[in-house]
Amino acid sequence: MIPLLIFSKDSKLIKKYVDNLKVGSIFFEIVPSTKEYSIDDIRNIKKEASIFYPKTRIYYFENFHLSSIPAQNSFLKLLEEPPSNVQFVLTTDNKNSLLPTIISRVKIIKLIEKQSKEVVEQFISPFHTTTKIPLSSFKITDKESAKNIILQLINFFRDKLDSDKKSPIILKEILRLNSLFENNNLNPQLTVDQVLIFIYKVYKMKLNS
Fold it and tell me: Residue 76's CB: how many other CB atoms inside 10 A?
């Protein structure tokens, strides 16, 4: 099973997501023996996880960024080839504290705080009536910030697919631009601006129709 890395600064969101994972599985919350996960902790998990069991087992590592570098290195092979019916779930609020090799072996689940959706909605709403694109509302300094905003916009327009006829058009274009952004060295600020300009133009089309 593909290991998961749950990324969020909201511990309540993480708890809610993890609670859903528990259903129908045997759940183990791994507690480090010291202030951080050690190489001995990882070795013990390797031994236990290697024992076959028919039901799915989840090994949960909260705040995995609190891990020694040797522990992370020891965990690499296990993440790459997890035992049968075993899923490793890691959480963090700081991906930069994890080795790139750890990041490359997990599926990242980024949880967006509830208030982020409200902020996006407040920003998008004026697009229906404004005559000027308010690009200054989003100032991007790095790729991670751009990805976060684009993901918020994707979630926002997915929720509006049934209530807003323009949402499918907008969502399709955001997903296209997001794919280009993920796979190419595009400028973060210009990418977000391009997304917002497209949204603005679609809403203007709606107003003029």
Answer: 15
Task: Write phi, then psi, for 39 (nearest 5 degrees).
Answer: -65, -30
Q: How far apart are CA 161 and CA 159, in angstroms?
A: 6
Q: Report which DSSP code applies to 37.
A: B
In sequence order, what are the residues at sequence separation of 6 or more whose Cβ sits closer than 8 angstroms to the Cβ of residue 27?
A: 21, 57, 58, 60
State pLDDT tens for residues 7-52.
888 888 888 888 888 888 899 999 988 889 999 999 999 999 888 8
Quick: pLDDT tens for 95-126.
888 999 999 999 988 886 554 566 566 666 66
pTM to 2 decimal places: 0.57
Q: Which residues pair with 4 in a beta bridge?
A: 89, 107
User: Which residues, listed in sequence order, are joined to residue 107 by a DSSP beta bridge?
Assistant: 4
Give the closest residue to 191 by CA, choosing from 199, 202, 180: 180
Residue 70 tokens read as 């040797």
Q: In what order do the strands lie in the sheet with 4-7?
A: 26-29, 57-61, 86-92, 4-7, 107-110
Find all residues with CB under 8 Å of 88, minimum gap 6, and list them.
Answer: 3, 4, 58, 59, 61, 78, 79, 82, 106
Beta carbons of 80 and 109 less than 8 angstroms apart: no
